[in-house]
Amino acid sequence: MNPVLITLIVILAVLVVAVVVLMILGKRAEKKQAEQQEQIDANKQTVSMLIIDKKRMKLKEAGLPQMVIDQTPRLLRGSKLPIVKAKVGPQIMSFVCDEKIFDNVPVKKEVKATVSGIYITEVKGLHGKSQPAPEKKKGAWAQALEKARKKLGATSVK
């Protein structure tokens, strides 16, 4: 047999094994996430709070309880999380915010938030009008792609 053909067969076999392993790990992660979401939904409460500040910061700098830091996997301790500092009643507390709603959380405003432990899952404005999230700037590649679509007369797909 040709050595090039043998090499291609080996590479193809390794790729097939890698895809199968990734599919299995993905299904396990999906099941874990579904279980965690069920727990969050079971423990959620609606709380009125005054949002003081919001930032993306590392877990150790966030001012979260030591027990939370100890339970976090070592690889995630260095990553930045969306942290919201809020006044709930007489206390000032630090919360971890859901990534989906972090940009919509108003600062220096009173809101009703759905909280599960120290995790904010939903925010609704209480007083005044809610401000829409500012639009993100487009990168150079996205701008060039948009110009090309305009020249060709194609509409953008969202």
Write the layout of secondary structure elements.
Blueprint: H1 3-42, E1 45-58, H2 66-71, E2 80-88, E3 91-97, E4 110-116, E5 119-125, H3 140-152
Parallel strand pairs: 3-5
Antiparallel strand pairs: 1-2, 1-4, 2-3, 4-5
Description of the structure:
The protein is α+β, with helices and mostly antiparallel strands and 158 residues long. Helix content is 37%, strand content 28%. It has two domains: 1-42; 44-125, OB fold (Dihydrolipoamide Acetyltransferase, E2P). It has three helices and five strands. Strands 1-2-3-5-4 form a five-stranded mixed barrel. The longest helix has 40 residues, at 3-42. The radius of gyration is 23 Å and the shape is extended. The N and C termini lie far apart (50 Å).
3D shape:
extended
The total tally of domains equals: 2
Series of secondary-structure elements, N-terminal to C-terminal: HEHEEEEH
The gyration radius over C-alpha positions equals 23 Å
CATH topology of the largest domain: OB fold (Dihydrolipoamide Acetyltransferase, E2P)
List the uncertain runs.
none
What kind of sheet is the major sheet? 5 strands, mixed, barrel
Helix content estimate: 25-40%
Largest sheet: spatial strand order:
1-2-3-5-4
Mean pLDDT level: 87
Secondary structural class: alpha+beta
Broad CATH class of the largest domain:
Mainly Beta
N-to-C span: 50 Å
Number of helices: 3
Beta percentage is 25-35%
What is the CATH architecture descriptor of the largest domain? Beta Barrel
Kindly state the number of beta strands.
Answer: 5
